[in-house]
Amino acid sequence: MELGGTVLTLIAVLTLIMWALIFERLFFLRARYPSMVRKALAIWEGRDERESWHARRVREELVSVVGQALDQNLALLKTCVALCPLMGLLGTVTGMISVFEVMAISGSGNPRSMAAGVSMATVPTMAGMVAALSGLAMSAWLDNKAYSERELLAEHMTMDH
Description:
Blueprint lengths: L4 H41 L7 H19 L2 H33 L4 H46 L5
């Protein structure tokens, strides 16, 4: 943590939040989502009439409620993924400012004193990119999963008996 400065700590906290959101979504898909689908299908299958305008609105509402639950926290997850490389860039800028301060005080002839600033400039960039890559893959998978599950639920709610 000392190599990257305080920005590296912020990237670590952001990464923890991002992965907590990912695990929450995985837990939701595994534990709560199946019961929500069963409940929505039971409400739909319990209807006697399914072809009127009112029945179609009920169907849309059931799919929408389940879809909203599927999409919960996905926007926040995408924001965390987008923020990780930006935080890394912030670390680069603060590290370069540190290098320039050292150069202004001691001149450019002391590479050892600039090494800490260069390290502070490069480590957060790498950490931000690694965190973003790991979150990006899971975010895309969760987004596709939410879309496909919503479409699958709509297909299961047939209009005929």
